[in-house]
Every structure is written in structure tokens, then in C-alpha cells.
TrEMBL record:
<dbReference type="InterPro" id="IPR036249">
    <property type="entry name" value="Thioredoxin-like_sf"/>
</dbReference>
<protein>
    <recommendedName>
        <fullName>Sucrase ferredoxin</fullName>
    </recommendedName>
</protein>
<dbReference type="InterPro" id="IPR009737">
    <property type="entry name" value="Aim32/Apd1-like"/>
</dbReference>
<dbReference type="Pfam" id="PF06999">
    <property type="entry name" value="Suc_Fer-like"/>
</dbReference>
Amino acid sequence: MQADLRRDSLIATAPPAERWLLIESYSAWPRQALTSLGAELGEAVSRTCRHLGIRPVLVRRYGRVDRSRGRRWGMVDCGPGRELARWGQLPTDEHLLDVLAGNDPGTVTNEPVYLVCTHGRHDACCAVRGRPVAAVLAAAYPEQTWECSHIGGDRFAANVVVLPHGLFYGHVPPARAVELARQYDEGAVVPDLLRGSGAFVPPVQAAQHFARAAGHSPAVGNLLPRSVQELSANRWRILLASTNGPITVEVSAHLDTVDARLTCAGSSPAQVRRFELDSLTSA
């Protein structure tokens, strides 16, 4: 994959995703996932999710599916201090509107959810690189692992999202897939594969990365933002709360032009955003 050869930075590339709607699907996924619900219902679900700030994705189990269990839906909140998932049965696709309206509260669980993007019709690399990772994770965590539709960052395949903290990982090789889950079970992130948390804006993701690189704890709950100050159009000052005391991090964003397609369906040349550390001070 060209992103590997270019050594594209993973830093702060997690797209905003503070809430998720997981929709179990037995059918083949089209390029635009929600069109599998039908044009009218798919648009209604998409419109409602946009209004509520929810990221909808299709999910399925890896390998052969036991359809006698029925399909499920999941609603996940990744907001700091609110991290949890709710699951319920999905008798019909139309029931999704009841879920979004709050008419079906589902059952709350603190169990992790591991999503592996395998959406080959969106980008072939996601299937080629994602499915081996899904196989390894599903073997170790069969009840918590799901293949999922497009989540963004195809050039970083294999992409894994760890919920409910919304941790995006990229360039995940099968040999390290279980490591991500085990570290999460122990309450830590794996910094060298971490794209960031979708619960935070990219400048905060960048600040967290640079703080960890400076030796601060990789604990999942560490380095929460206390304030974000925009100093200029492409520069920010972020105050992070750390187990070692507050940290002030200043970061800047820069656009680089790449003479290549970033994804299978992309165009060339393309631009990528890159964050740099300007300063880091501890109290």
C-alpha cells in the first residue's frame, strides 16, 4: 500500500465520532452502506444520525453467521465519562427509527466492541487487509469482534476501532490485532498504531500523541482535554489533564501535497494534513 511506502502519519487522523449506531446486516454491503436499507429508509436513518451526531455503520460477524440468533443493533457513546454501549434486537430495518427516537433503550453493557473495516466495495484494501485482522480478533474475542463498513482512512488499512472509547487504529497487522484488545482490557492504548480517539477533535488527538511520546502514561483515561484555544487558523494550545499534573501542548497543522491517489477511488494529486509539535510544557 502506497501510504506505507510514503510513511503517512497516523497522528490525529481519527474522524469525529462521539456516538455510533451499529446495524447488523446479513446482506452484501453496497458501496454506500446505508443504501442497503432501501433508498427511503436509508436516507431517513442517515438524516436522523446527522442531526443527532451519530456515526452509523453496518456490522457483521466474521465467517459463518448463526441467523437463528436474529440481528442486533448497538448504540455506543464515546464521550469522556459516558463510555458505554447499549444493544438490542433488530426485528426489522424500520426499527432503527425507534432506536434513534429513544423508544427502545436496549441493554447497557460495558463490554468492549472491536470493529474491523472490511468494506471492500468502498476500497479493496479494506477487505484485503481487514479480513485477516478480523479473523485473528474474532478467534480471540468472538463475541466482541465485528467486521464493519467504511469508517474513514482507507489508506491506513487495516483499520480497527475500539469502542466505547472510540480509539481508531491504523496499519494494524494481524500479528498485533490481539495486542490492541489486550492492552485495552488493561486500560491502555497502543501509541504507535493509534490514529486518535474520535471523541476528540484532531488538535486534541495530536496533543495527546505528543504528550505520550514525551513519556506520559498511555492509560486510556489519561490526557483528557481541559481547554482548547485556537491561536490562529492552523495553531492550537491544548491543556491536558495528566496523572503527572497538567500539560500545555501547542500544535500546528500543515497541508502536504501528495502526487498519488490516497485511496483506490481517489484522485491525484491529493492533500494530507500533518500535525507538528510546537511546544510542550508541564506544570
